[in-house]
């Protein structure tokens, strides 16, 4: 369970109790970009597709698993983050990434 200081100005707009009691919290549409970036920087692990969230996680050096579709992970993947792992199916289709592979990679990074 994450522990946040009571006077944390970043989390003041959010319900700290909800964030601390739930392992998964949907904050879609409830954050600003600065708050979104700050929250990603506090994650234990980020599971994301190849979007801006993955790049923000890489900038914060967050442990992350990034799922890639047809674009090149070498060109567009998390940059300079030794804690990043990339998964891409040989077909280049995200639907072909096996759930078991994602689960295995997440477990490896959580150790």
- What gap, in angstroms, lies between the N and C termini? 16 Å
Helix content: 25-40%
**What is the total domain count?**
1
Question: Could you describe the largest sheet, including whether it forms a barrel?
Answer: 3 strands, parallel
Kindly report the average pLDDT value: 83
Overall radius of gyration: 15 Å
CATH topology: Rossmann fold
How many alpha or pi helices? 5
Shape: globular
Q: Detail the poorly predicted runs.
A: 1-5
Main-sheet strand order equals 1-2-3
Named at the architecture level, the CATH assignment is: 3-Layer(aba) Sandwich
**Helix-strand makeup class:** alpha/beta
Helix-strand sequence: HHEHEHEH
What does this structure look like?
This protein has helices spanning 16-21, 33-41, 52-59, 73-76, 99-110, and strands at 46-49, 64-68, 84-88. It has 111 residues and is an alpha/beta fold. The protein has one domain: Glycogen Phosphorylase B (Rossmann fold, 3-Layer(aba) Sandwich), CATH 3.40.50.
